[in-house]
Amino acid sequence: MFDAGDPATLIDAMAAASRAESAAIAERLRAVAALYEVRCVDYAEAQFWRTDVFEAVAAEVSAAQNISRGRAGCQVRVAVSLYQRLPQVAAVFARGDIDYRVLQMVINRTANVEDDIIAGLDASLAEQVRKWMRLSKKKLRDRIDVWVADYDPAAVRVPPTVAENCYLEVEAHPEAAGMAMVGGVLDAVDASAFDQRLDLIADSVCANDPRSKQQRRAAACGAMGRLESSLACLCGSTDCPAAKVRESAAQVVVHVLAEQATLEGTSRRPGYLSGFGVLPAESVRKAATTAKLKPVRFPSNEPESGYRPSAGLRDFLQWRDLTCRFPGCDRPVAGCDLDHTTSWPFGPTHASGLKHYCRTDHLIKTFYTGPNGWSDEQRPDGTIVITAPTGHVYTTDALGGILFPGLAVPTGTITTSTPVDGAGRTAMMPMRKTTREQDRRERVKQERRRRLELNAEQERQRQAWLAATYEPPPF
Questions:
Q1: Is residue 448 part of a domain?
Q2: Of the candidates 68, 74, 79, which has an alpha carbon nearest to the alpha carbon of residue 28?
Q3: Which residues are CB-contacts of 175 (< 8 A; sequence separation ≥ 6)?
Q4: Parent domain of 183
Q5: 167 and 153: one domain?
Q6: Percent of the chain with pLDDT over 70
Q7: What is the DSSP string of 400-435?
Q8: What is the largest CA-CA distance in the chain?
Q9: 230 occurs within a structural domain
Q10: Is the peptide bond before 327 cis (omega within 30 degrees of 0)?
């Protein structure tokens, strides 16, 4: 597989690569933090904007590294915290003395330390942290917390309550096309009701249904989504005792895009389930047996007269784009706005001049303009060419056009004019009531208060224990 070398040389190479990896990540984070500082000056008026400097920098990071907006935002948070609050720990990381795992733990466990104290803690941790590389996650956390408690007892992190972390997520399966994963943390009473409802629906079939109980419970989730109270039995019997009229009261619609040949069985080309991704041909044909079939119609070459596109044009654009068209963003079109590439009425309402941006990217494109802003252009086949504030150019292709080339056929050339610079346009930007930094400080304030309360209670219990176990001297 590869040329064997001297073991000592291989060990040296391994160690050097590990240190180089940390140094490279440190340099990347330093660049992100420096970019954030520059943009805070460039976009000084944006701190109360809904799409603030943090979002603007995350958009640049996402595009430059070709990563999702969520990962880019995480990098911005880590970079700013590291280089603004922990510069000496950052230097240790840049030398390769610690890895990213240790660095993340230090940043997280010191997040509540007061600004006038953090410098001293930073210096102390920089001297010690390289010794902790071998520690497990729990031991590493506890070691850092000891140092935090010495400098700022109120800053020791308080574990979040489970109730604060309730969630339920539904996402595409990472390996099995056409499948999805559901998971989360629920209130116990809600979970009990949900669990019982699944059982009731799963048990609505006869004893000869070939599916296992778990498979029927999984199918019951779809029935619940359609507001159905029972499952269709798969026993195959014409006189099944569980057979009944099953009507759906659902107000939900599931959209699947597929080629006609796939529906007819002459092609195994997969379809696309909106919001989840590729759907195998067999699943497409199964869904089509009870679905309303609607062809995607190619739009007219003539522009439409109004600002808002017709239902037919909107339908085509949704299937052509499938996701947000901004670099690094893959939010489904269901959560996106339609954007005129050249603002209306200077750009017509036409397929060659419309595409989808999620709300955050739409605001970035609309309000972060000028010398330090973004600009974009659109080609007739739906390709978007986006120029970043730095002059870097990124190209995004419509996902629907990639999966189904017929949707990427050029829709005609349009005529645009130069928009008039809208003075005072920034007044239309949705605003925050508090800045992101104010929100952070309020979170820290509340968690510090909880820590002081916990510390006081622990001290009360200690004093009570001492009083209960104290025995006066026998004289």
A1: no
A2: 79
A3: none
A4: 160-252
A5: no
A6: 95
A7: HHHHSGGGGS--------PPPP-TTGGGGS-B-SS-
A8: 106
A9: yes
A10: no
**Are 152 and 202 part of one and the same domain?**
no
Each residue of 303-322: b (16+ CB within 10 Å) or e? bbeeeebeeebbbbbbbbbb
Give backbone dihedrals phi and psi of 171, rounded to 5 degrees, phi first.
-145, 160
Token pair belonging to 469: 């176990």
- Which H helix or E strand runs over 196? helix 188-202
Q: Are 309 and 321 in contact (CB under 8 A)?
A: no
List the one residue out of 115, 123, 58 whose CA is nearest residue 85.
Answer: 115
Hey, which residues does 336 pair with through a beta bridge? 358
Residues 25 and 127 in one domain: yes
Q: What is the DSSP string of 279-343?
A: E-HHHHHHHHTSSPP-PPPPPPSSPBSSSSPPHHHHHHHHHHH-B--STT---BGGGEEEEESS-
Residues 37, 136 share a domain:
yes
pLDDT tens digits, one per residue of 85-144: 999 999 999 999 999 999 999 999 999 999 999 999 999 999 999 999 999 999 999 999
**Does 433 map to a domain?**
no
Residue 157 has pLDDT above 90, yes or no: yes
Query: What average pLDDT score do residues 437-465 get?
Result: 92
Contact between 143 and 105 under an 8 Å Cβ cutoff? The reply is no
Rounded percentage of the chain residues whose pLDDT exceeds 90: 59
Same domain, 115 and 167: no
Residue pair 220/232 in contact (Cβ under 8 Å)? The answer is no
259 with 269: CB under 8 angstroms?
yes
Count other C-beta atoms under 10 Å from residue 202's C-beta: 23
Residue 376, pLDDT above cutoff 90: yes
- The 3-class secondary structure across 136-177, one letter per residue, is CHHHHHHHHHHHHHHHCHHHCCCCCCHHHHCEEEEEECCCCC
Residue 269 and residue 247 in one domain = no
Say if residue 73 is in the same domain as residue 192: no
Judge whether 318 and 333 are in contact, CB under 8 Å.
yes
- Amino acid at position 237, single letter: S
Average of per-residue pLDDT across 403-414: 90
Domain total for the chain?
Answer: 4
Report, in this order, helix, strand and coil percent for the chain, each rounded to 5: 50, 10, 40
**Which residue, 252, 276, 298, sits at the end of a domain?**
252
- Are residues 153 and 11 both part of a single domain? yes
Residue where a domain stops, chosen among 415, 447, 470: 415
User: Is the residue at 305 inside a domain?
Assistant: no
Q: What per-residue confidence (pLDDT) applies to 401?
A: 93
